Amino acid sequence: MKPFLPILPFLAKYPFLRVAGRFLEFEFGDLESILRSDDELVSSARELGVRIVEATLKGEKVPELENLKDLKEPFLCEECDVKDCVGRGGDLDRFRFCDYPVHSSEKYIKHLNIAKKFVLAYLFSKIAVSNLSEALRRKFAVRMARIYREMLEGESVGFLKVVVADFGINAKFVDGIFRVDVVDYLRGAVRIKAEEWKLVNRRLERGFVFLSKRELVRLLEEFLRDRLCERVEAGLKLEVKVEHESVDLDVKDLGIKAECYPPCMKKILSDLRNGMNVPHSARFAIAAFLLNIGMSVDDVVNVFRNAPDFDEDKTRYQVEHIAGRRGKGEEYICPSCDTMKSYGNCYADESCSNIKHPVRYYVRCVRSHSKRYSRE
Amino acid sequence: MEITRLFLIKKFGEYYANADLYIPKDLEKREFAFVPLEQFPDFVMHRHMAFSSDHELKTYLRSNVPAHAYYSTAYYSNPSAEMEEKGWMGADLIFDIDADHLPKRSLKAAKIEVLKLVKILEEDFGVDERCVEIVFSGRRGYHVHIYDERFRSLGSAERREIVDYLTLNSLKNPESRQMKRIARCIAKYVENAIKDGRIERMLEKENEAMKTILKTNLKVIAEGDFSLLPKEVFDRAYNLCLSRLAVHVDPPVTADIKRLIRLPNSLHGKTGLKVTPIPLDEFEDFDPLRDAVVFGDEMVKVRILKRVRVRLKGEEFRLTPGKGKVPEYLAVFLICRGVALYGH
């Protein structure tokens, strides 16, 4: 028996896999005993884990991770005929029962040690990130996910299937192409903004979306970010040295500059002014937009005064709700450009290039104006 | 107004006393909302109600006869709590096809949209037809409920992607299945336009050469290469095909994961028609103005307030203001529409 043999080199490269958790348990027992251990391996992995977080947040490379990129081992399961493991454990557990016949012990031990080191380092990275702010955790997750994606692109289809199953994604590989369950596809793809990722631009048949290997890996990157962002409760604090986060200028301090409203909002305003019946989704959008940029509830209510069905009390109630003065107490955020488009409320022109959110449009416009004035 | 209200409460009450109730899946996880007839014609909604059994819901409906009855498409761990404390657990995927939002505003056009929708859901989304339920909304359209558990957990953004797929919003990629459909439609359009001579009016000047080029390249066009098409022909064909192939669902309804939707088998208080679930194999023959009528033919005294023309149960009625006698089903309809009062 050579437990975890085929997956060992991959555990070192991809320690985020759930199988890695099984591996740690098998080798070290529970989390408690790892944290209590005074093993040399554990303490050096702890140092590496923290260093990975610090370097990643600073945008620097970690030599150990760079070296891993050259670790190119075949995925042995693809050429294995024994297959006894399959009957003994599911996707997660079968690797433990590996009985692959031709493989030297030395190589096994070598891979075993590398795997231990990096899986432990990953665990400590996760513990270290868990104490950081949401924004920093996100930053770490985004950067690490990108590194993993670049490595995954070089892996075989056989191994990618393992990763896909690890994330609970329902997919099959037919005639050189991956077919991913549309529900799983949507979960990841909605966060990728490029138009080619919109479902409408995909080949979709019988509930499955067709993806090339490269595209599949890009989709996995989205799932990865979420997993990397998750916190672990370990009852342990690891100190991470990070520079202070820059604070984004509050949009509400920019003042109200009507000339900087995006075309969609200008259109809704002019329709309202002309007494046209504006759809509910557009009314919500203009109210949220104006509140987001700092307009008062009274001024926003006035915007609706010309609507054919204007009812001051109702309007005020709704505007206050959007402003977060009622209900949950949180201000609603104006819909994104995608949402505006879906509801037929988008009137983009060339001034909207690279803009994904009406409030961003406003911020960009106000800032470029103020720069121009200050230069004059 | 008082006796009109009492008449409606009596009639709706009789209906609910005998009607087969529709029990949504996982009833105890749904929020219910009702607009009581007590306040007719005012529309006052009572929300955040929950029931733990069929019997409880039935008893409630019989003692508090509603003008409108709704339930949540969402499943909640605590459906009677305030919105923020409900504990969202998922929602059925739903579509609303409203005749008033269609290029051709008719119930017939709405039916065609429903059939288009069901076909795409099956062919592209792999939805099993046993998970599809079509319901006449009781007024101007149809609701399509999808009880496929895979879709339950989808958020609003994911559902909006499904809407964009159906409405062909932001369609760009020539390799996508939707664009391939468009390409076949455009080729067919060009072929027909050549046959019946419309193509000549579309091309700016007499252009035999262009006609020949198009004729011999129909296959290329059908495969998605539109480079040969003159702009004026392409624009016209593309927009026509877009409108023909898009399924005109109402986007916010599908994207809203906390929506209230009419309870099937309840009555629509603005028409008195039954919110009718229709089995797929009977959908083609379904006529809402005949099959969703639940009240009888007994003659009822009413006071008509406005000139109206209605077709109900296959009969056309032209009514003028004043006292008259009409069949009960028509009386209920007119009263609900606000164009008649009960009694003389």
The number of domains of chain A? 3
pLDDT averaged over residues of chain B = 94
Mean pLDDT of chain A: 87
Which value, in Å, is the CA radius of gyration of chain B?
Answer: 24 Å
CATH superfamily of the largest domain in chain B: DNA primase, PRIM domain
Terminal CA distance of chain A? 77 Å
Largest sheet of chain A: 4 strands, antiparallel
Number of helices of chain A: 17
Shape of chain B: flat
| Class by SSE composition of chain B | alpha+beta
Count of individual helical segments of chain B = 13
Strand content of chain A: under 5%
How many discrete structural domains of chain B?
A: 3
State the total count of DSSP E strands of chain B.
Answer: 15
Strand sequence of the main sheet of chain B, in spatial order?
Answer: 2-1-3-9
What radius of gyration of chain A results from the CA coordinates? 26 Å
What are the low-pLDDT stretches of chain B, counting only 5+ consecutive residues below 50? none
The geometry of chain A reads as elongated
Short description:
The longest helix of chain A is centred in the first third of the chain and has 26 residues, at 105-130. Chain A is elongated, with a radius of gyration of 26 Å. In chain A, β3 (204-205) and β4 (208-211) form a beta hairpin.
